[in-house]
Design a protein that fits this description.
The chain folds into two domains: 99 residues, Ubiquitin-like (UB roll) (Roll), CATH 3.10.20.70; 318 residues, Creatine Kinase, Chain A, domain 2 (2-Layer Sandwich). Helix content is 34%, strand content 22%. The chain has twelve helices and 16 strands. Strands 7, 8, 9, 10, 11, 12, 13, 14, 15 and 16 form a ten-stranded mixed β-sheet that branches. Strands 1, 2, 3, 4, 5 and 6 form a six-stranded mixed β-sheet that branches. Strand 7 and strand 8 form a beta hairpin. The protein is globular, with a radius of gyration of 22 Å.
């Protein structure tokens, strides 16, 4: 109550007039209800009712009543825009006052609770990649610049990235670095690691801030995994570690890769379940146009250290910085719902710990240059959304992560997406076949 009273006084002092109540649908799209300041205390104690049947993957029309409970730990003033507003991320509840089983944030909280019961604190850092396009009366298919990786001269979005970083800092979201990416007009903002729930909340916030900032500059920011043919895709590499009693439990300085047995087991679990959970990490049809040979996005389910063609990498760390020991998984992209993506990774890793799964032999060579003989025994990620959904449908780890009902809802939504796509006639098909047959 003391914290709530402090927030209410702070709102009055800063003349914050409105509160935006955020939550995400099953696909990770932000939904929002806005309330005036004088309704916030009531919202905290009683919740705010809304029609769940209008939200993708939530209730059916005859079970639509749901309500939001603000998580006051996520209260953040949104800055200097008029009228002054704040945002708070909410948990979704069913009419019987129980947490709604289909709430993506609730799914992650359940996975975190399972880890916490074993004494594990899951930390995650995220690399958010995005493209910028010019905006005029329509969307102009032109890059916002034509420079490359880490370039300074010609990077006309440098000022924009600094503004994004400053804004995120004001919101309490720590940014480690920002830089130009490989693709022309492609950029990256890296969020410093935090506990899994905090960083998931930070990702949905950061994507919103990036898009809003781009709009003010007359541009469009897109997190679409593969927006341009022949150019690098947008990834969301995730860096994971487990802390026990404030100590990095992944670190073992006596090991060749600096990894503990716990880390190897966690790695083994994620490699084992990679195909099953892939659709939660790379959830769109477009995602699988990024996961192809010839770019740095992974195709093969393997691990290594220097190898950027591997699914999971063990990044180098500075001497003596054992708290930095981590595993980097490279197939997720920023179209993923971070709550469901994180939950699936945690549950896969915990299964590896429980089953004491050992990972396969590490690969340090470029997987894309190996012949068929060298690739024997190495499996690949799904090559399409259709293939990924088959793996997802038959997965026990997915069922344990999402629950049976949410699993079915997600599968149905994505099956419809595939069916809609598969009946479309693309410009490529017209150009390829029209004059031949």
């Amino acid at each position: 109550m003391q914290k709530i009273d402090g927030i209410l006084k702070d709102m009055e002092r800063k003349d914050i007039k409105f509160i935006d109540l955020w939550f995400t649908d099953i696909l990770g799209c932000i939904k929002n209800l806005t309330i005036p300041r004088n309704e916030f205390k009531k919202a905290i104690s009683e919740g705010i009712w809304f029609d769940g049947s209008s939200v993708e993957g939530f209730g059916r029309i005859y079970e639509s009543d749901m309500y939001l409970i603000p998580d006051i730990n996520t209260f953040l003033p949104l800055g200097k825009e008029e009228p002054l507003s704040a945002r708070v991320i909410c948990d979704v509840y069913s009419p019987d006052h129980s947490p709604f089983s289909g709430d993506p944030r609730g799914v992650l909280k359940r996975a975190i609770k399972i880890a916490s019961d074993s004494g594990y604190n899951i930390n995650i850092g995220a690399e958010l990649e995005f493209y910028l396009f010019r905006r005029d009366d329509t969307v102009t298919p032109m890059f916002y610049d034509r420079v490359g990786y880490f370039d300074l001269e010609g990077d006309i979005a440098l000022k924009m990235r600094k503004e994004i970083t400053e804004k995120l800092h004001e919101l309490g979201i720590a940014v480690e670095t920002g830089h130009h990416e490989v693709g022309p007009g492609q950029h990256e903002i890296d969020l410093k690691y935090a506990d899994a729930l905090t960083i998931a909340d930070s990702i949905v916030t950061a994507k919103t801030i990036i898009k809003r900032t781009a709009e003010r500059y007359g541009t469009i920011a897109t997190f679409m995994p593969k927006p341009v043919f022949g150019k690098p895709g947008n990834g969301m590499h995730l860096h994971q570690s487990i802390f026990i009693n404030d100590k990095n439990a992944f670190a073992d300085n006596s090991d060749k890769y600096g990894l503990s047995e716990l880390a190897y087991n966690y790695l083994g679990g994620q490699l084992k379940h990679a195909r099953e959970i892939c659709v939660l990490l790379a959830p769109t049809i477009n995602s699988y146009k990024r996961l192809v040979s010839g770019y740095e996005a992974p195709v093969y389910i393997c691990w290594g250290q220097m190898n950027r063609s591997a699914l999971i990498r063990v990044p180098r760390i500075s001497k003596g910085k054992l708290d930095s020991r981590r595993l980097e998984i490279r197939c997720p992209d920023p179209s993923a719902n971070p709550y469901l993506a994180f939950a699936s990774l945690i549950m896969a890793g915990l299964d590896g710990i429980e089953q004491k799964l050992a990972p396969s032999t590490p690969h340090e060579e470029n997987m894309f240059e190996l012949d068929d003989e060298s690739l024997k025994g190495v499996t690949t990620l799904p090559r399409s959304l259709f293939e990924a959904l088959d793996e997802f449908e038959n997965s026990d780890i997915v069922k344990r992560t999402l629950g049976e009902n949410l699993k079915k809802k997600y599968l149905n939504i994505k099956r419809r997406e595939w069916e809609e796509y598969s009946t479309q006639v693309s410009s490529w098909e017209i150009e390829k076949y029209l004059n031949i047959y």
